[in-house]
Amino acid sequence: MSKGFLSSFKGFSNENEVFSTEKTILKRIDENGKCNLSEINFNDTVFLYRSDYLLKTEIKQEMVHKIDGVAFTVGLEGTMKLKSQLSNKEFFSKKSHINMHLISEDSIYHEIPKSSSYKALSFILKKQFLEKVLPENKLKEQIFSSLRESYFSKELCNIKMDTKMSFLANEIYSSPMLGKLNQLYLESKSLEVIHNCLNSFSQNEFKNDSNGIKFSQYDIEALHKARKILLENMNNPPSIEELSKIVKLNDFKLQLGFKKLFNLTPYAFLLEERMQKAKVLLEQSEYNINEIALIVGYSYAQNFSNAFFKRFGMRPKELMKTRKYYY
After folding, report:
1. I want to staple 240 with a disulfide (CB 3.0 to 4.6 A). Which of 115, 187, 254, 293 is the partner?
2. For the whole prediction, is pTM greater than 0.70?
3. Domain range for 148
């Protein structure tokens, strides 16, 4: 496949470009195949890329990556071969594997074979994000010492995904949500993936360094406040970024603390509360299904019905029939 197929993509995380919403980087279908690449920006410090290629001929392209942080790829389908110009080492992004790199700036050669499909999630964690979330330990010291170099690229690990990570990655890739709920969904799931990846690497590399994230009384109070805000704004919830600013707790700590304190991520908590409220309204109120869907934050009744079925194993209309007065 010619270089022109990817010529509009200049590489990940050019610091002169800032995107605040999901942006299509590449979308092309021609005689060479299909190529889709989208970018989602969280706080200008975490970037998520969703790749979807279905190729008739091969891709061969060299691109500059200005990352200044950690990059990792979660392979969902197929294989991409990569080669660092700095280290001259080859590595692979492939199905069911996580490949993590520490990069300041590097020129990387990409190759996908012809007659193949490739799907992956790629995360970029900028230095500012790592400064905020990493505990003070040898891992953090190693990362920031390396990133002081102008041009640096090092593979940190290449590990096989466990079932939990595979499930999370596919949930992100095929998000069923729309609008504000989709933003909250992607932020919440992405932070969970990031925590699992960094935690796994930290444990593997520094088993004797157990300095973890601790929660103060202020943090606990902030988490309870965040819970209250989500309950009061169920049909139009704030994003993780907005919520973290309101309660003055960084988004990474908000995500982890929420799960630790309430046994659910913010998104999972919100979804459960929505479903429980919907269940009561279906059983006891006089609202119809479209009205209930809007009350609990769904723009489309079909999406609400699917979510309700997934949670309770029955459609909303089946539950409505148990009302004392059903028309």
Report:
1. 187
2. no
3. 3-164
